Amino acid sequence: MKLICETCTINRAVTGGKRAFQKTILAIGKGSERKGDETKIMLITTANKTGTKYSVLKNISKLFTRFLEEGKATISFIAPEHDVQIKSDKVQLTAFLKVLKLVLTGGGPSVEGTQSATNPFSPSAPLRLPCLTVGKKKASILDSPSVLSTKCTITNRKDYPTKGFSRLLVSLQISDVKLSRFDSQILLLQKLRILNLSNNCIRSLPRALGQLRLCELDLSSNCLTGCTWDWLQEPNIQSSLQSLNISDNGLHFLPTNVIYAGALVALTANSNHIRKLPFAIWTMNRLRVLSLAKNQIDGLPETLERIRLERLDLSENNLSVDGGTTGPYPSTSMQQRQPSTLFELTARTVIDRKLPYATPGLMPFTVVDILRRVPLCGCGVPCFDSRVYHRTKLINGRCSCLVLNANHLLIADSVFCSDKCLRKANERSLHIRGF
């Protein structure tokens, strides 16, 4: 049994004997080909390619597995007085420790105390271990830069791994290989934090993508016009994703599910065909960088004023005042509205008082979805059933750096909760007509 991992050997007999982690081949097997030779564990490192052997039977005082879920374990030997700390993939480390346990227990019964005829490690199928040898090929594995690497970059089809990705990957880039569908092997990389799938031909993304705890995701230059974006409704991706790039995907609208990415700091959606933004964008209170250059946006939601941005790029859009506005309105009174329903009154109270409602299981998702997507009037009142008036007013973006074309302004679309707010909008729209 062989395990490629990182180890740190601590000599308990020497004060301050801790050393740094280094690439290691950890193997378990017979010390030699002689029948009477006992089982041993051998460590092969880049500094010691001949290997260090430790006896197993009656030589292990403790086996620490409290952090096995994190891929960490420690083997404490009696002689010599060494503690070998191990960091590896959780699945592979678990398999190695199972073999070690079978050696220590003599291939005894399973945990439940019963023997299984199908168990290859049961007494009916004696545990057979190889003889420990050190060859040049085995030792040279540690010199490969890809061994235990946490970063992988693939820009050519021939570099695509045939045996899957390393479970230790933290950063993965697959670009310019004409990938037509999402590789399900990526879903197995639980430590992955940065994923770049730019310049491919991906048309859809599985919902399971949202179960990864990604911090950065680059999906630019693909074909995601028909993507459902339901993966953004998964709790893991909502709490971890900080940077999302969906530029050059032929999108006709900004995916509404983006508002569920509560930790998002930077959103880039350049070179699409986006015309409108969701009113619920105001709920993304951690957003600091919003780049929407080279789209067809002709009006922004008024709620954009509620976000404090560091950079807003709206260059090469349709925000010219020459496009016209809908104000002033022909009438200063709104259409006769029905009295607010009990649901609307309750929902307004929840939003106004900022009561927590997004906790999973607290209320049906459909209700949460309505509360998250509701437009707000300029005065802050939620409007559940109101007409959207296009290009009604000018807004001042709360932004440190604003990128706009010459003669372009931040023209906003609005909803109104009452005649009073509508009349105020009529008065302000006169300024737009004066340009």
Compact summary:
Residues 1-107 form the PIF1/LRR1 pleckstrin homology domain. This is PIF1/LRR1 pleckstrin homology domain-containing protein. With 435 residues, this protein is an alpha/beta fold.
Q: What report would you give on this structure?
A:
The chain is α/β, with parallel strands linked by helices. Among the domains are: 2-14 and 21-101, Roll (PH-domain like); 151-274, Ribonuclease Inhibitor (Leucine-rich repeat, LRR (right-handed beta-alpha superhelix)), CATH 3.80.10.10. The protein is built from 6 helices and 19 strands. The strands form 3 sheets. It has a 9-stranded parallel β-sheet with strand order 8-9-10-11-12-13-14-16-18, with no helix packed on it. Strands 4-3-2-1-7-6-5 form a 7-stranded antiparallel β-sheet, covered by helices on one side. Strands 15-19-17 form a 3-stranded mixed β-sheet. The termini are far apart. Mean pLDDT is 83; it is low at 108-125 and 328-334. This is PIF1/LRR1 pleckstrin homology domain-containing protein. InterPro entries: Leu-rich_rpt (IPR001611), Leu-rich_rpt_typical-subtyp (IPR003591), LRR_dom_sf (IPR032675), LRR_domain-containing (IPR050216), PIF1/LRR1_PH (IPR057437). Keywords: Leucine-rich repeat, Nucleus, Repeat. Residues 1-107 form the PIF1/LRR1 pleckstrin homology domain.
